[in-house]
Amino acid sequence: MSCERLLKTVLVAVVGVALVTFAAGHCIAQDGGADGGADGGADGGTSGDGGVFNPNPFAPAGVEVDAAGVLRMRLHRDPTGQLSEQRRQQSRAALNPDLARRSPLRKVSLNRLEQALARCLADTGTVSEEMQYLAGLTRLKYVFYFPETSDIVIAGPAEGYAQDLSGRIVGLHTGQSVLELQDLIVALRAFPPLGNPTPVISCSIDPTRQGLERMQKFLVQVAGNIQPGDANRVAAGLRQSLGLQDVTIGGISPRTHFAQVLVEADYRMKLIGIGLETPAVDIKSYVQRANPSQVARNAMQRWYFVPDYNKVRTSEDGLAMELVGNGVQLVDEDELVTQQGNRSESTRVNRASRGFVRDFTDKFDELAQRSPVFSQLRNLIDMSVAAAYIQHEDYYGKADWSMRVLGNEVLAPVENFQAPEHVESAVNVIWKGRTLMTPIGGGVNIQPQLALNSDVMLDDEDGRLREQHEQIGIDQLDETTWWWD
User: Do 134 and 94 form a contact (C-beta atoms < 8 A)?
Assistant: First the structure.
């Protein structure tokens, strides 16, 4: 009996446990709801009660990469919230009161920061937390250049910070992820003072051709023998046949925190899409939307993050840039898988997939406010666009700033992480209709220079951006001061 004719068939969604290219998947659906016995595990704690990963403020999630380069999710449980509150109180007591205070617009001079960093390294051999977490910035909203002092300045809202149980640095008040120096360094090195810009920063998680071929053979084997109670058996078989999926990172070093955030954000998005993670906001998943009759057989969905390239506003004199909007979009592509495991583009439009990515994009800002990994992703994209703008406007040359310390891996090392090379396939299983579906998807593709094209850049029509630049009192600063409110 063919897959299409199964009395009860499988809608399987498989996800690679990591970043940028959605893995392969099938979900066995039943009455349109998630099967409580679904195997959401991927050996990484992704499954919660009933097989669904359901993070909350007291159960922060993170990732780790083992010595073999396999990336897995980790859930850090804190049922009462007591441990998290203790950390916040300890951090609040330890922080400089000026640093802990919320600020609507905190400014950081990049060249002064580098000078302070050099002094700190010379004196103590270490980097202060204040520098590591960029004085508590939670968003990068502006880039300014001041010819009179040769300062390159980034600015945005800021607050005191603490480390959550997963190791993520978040704001004490908003819970938003804090910008990190190590990520800013990666972005600046992608667009350095001397040298060509990095065309694309990308990450993808892809099933291997051999894995897809094994998956197709497995589906043929079980097509005539699936019973309503076989959900776990099918999920295990799919995960085993797909095996490990490959992680590919381009444009930056895979041994950086930047790369790991890309991987985690992509993976978590995929879990939401296939119903293995309950998002912090109301986003209807792909599997909730999917209508098997409207999807081509052996269709795979690819979902990937891109910047919102219509997000850059510049002043007429070129001394100020503002990033507007959410900054992140989720887009989709359709593919087909042959019996030999090869992938090809599909000409059919999957309405369920389009609805999911549109909903995810529309609610991204709200999601980022409650799920720090997505605010981290936005911060990475914003830092990349800002770095591209600094290079594009030759602020380096105008400021005579060679990035002697920040551009040197020996002096300012950021390649300190195990590179993610593989992820395990995660499978959700729900009974849904009579058609076997195999969605795959994913990716992160950042091309910051596209945001600087004249046809998408926004004009400072009312002069507010220029006024913002003029109001920043940089002339009165002590030469050792690198951040101020």
Answer: no
- Token representation of residue 227: 């019973």
**Among candidate residues 164, 103, 165, the one with its CA nearest the CA of residue 134:** 103
CA 217 to each of CA 241, 300, 340, 411, 461: distance values in angstroms, whole numbers, following the listed order: 9, 16, 9, 52, 60
Helix, strand, coil % (nearest 5) of the chain? 35, 25, 45
What are the pLDDT digits (tens) for 3-32?
Answer: 333 222 333 333 332 222 222 333 322 222
User: Alpha helix locations (H) across 162-256?
Assistant: 181-190, 209-222, 231-242
Q: What residue has token string 């043929």?
A: 220
Structure tokens at 80: 């009462």
Q: What is the DSSP letter of 214?
A: H
Query: Strand pairing of 458-459 and 312-314?
Result: parallel
Domain boundaries, the chain: 3-484
- Give the contacts of 410 (CB within 8 A, at least 6 positions apart): none
Which residues, at least 6 apart from 89, have a Cβ–Cβ distance to it below 8 Å?
A: none
pLDDT computed for residue 215 by the predictor = 83
The whole-angstrom separation of Cα 41 and Cα 53 is 9
Distance separating alpha carbons of residues 470 and 211, to the nearest angstrom: 58
